[in-house]
Amino acid sequence: MTATINILGLSGSLRQHSAHTAILNTVAEQLSGQVRLTLHGLERIPPYNEDNDGVHAPQAVSDLRAAVAAADGVLIGSPEYNHGMSGVLKNALDWLSRPHGKSALTGRPVLGFTASPAFTGGVRAHQQLNETLWAVKAALVVYPQIVIGDVHSKIEHGRLADGAAQTFLLDGIGALIELINKQEKVDSNSPRR
Question: Which residues are in the NADPH-dependent FMN reductase-like domain (predicted)?
């Protein structure tokens, strides 16, 4: 029997009707077989303050770090605010970048996507997200940027309804799963959870 692949979903938007959370929920419903996507909220993560890190790290931060460490891969969705990723997501990634040199994201397979009401789909936020993930040495999936433009017209009843966007995103998740499986073969001492 094949072990379950656990993917952690992080949405960079806290809005109740967030397009990014809707997209992550759509993905979770579309996955089948031995692949599971679980969302982890960022609403309780406080602003990063190094004085409050280490042994003083807030429980919400410790829980986030543990969730990333337990995941086989991470799927991150970010809105674009003022030509960059959301502050909520950047803050969470700053917490996840610590302790220095021992980030739970280091070496972890990660796929990012952005969505925006603009036709550009958040491409600048996507680039900024990638730069931050490169800085912490995450294992970024080699795949074209997943940017979903005019996103409000593509969400119906709280789910991503656009077939082309769904297919492209799910193909990206296929590439994420391939990277996870490749890492499993290389590191046979790290059994899947």
Answer: 6-150
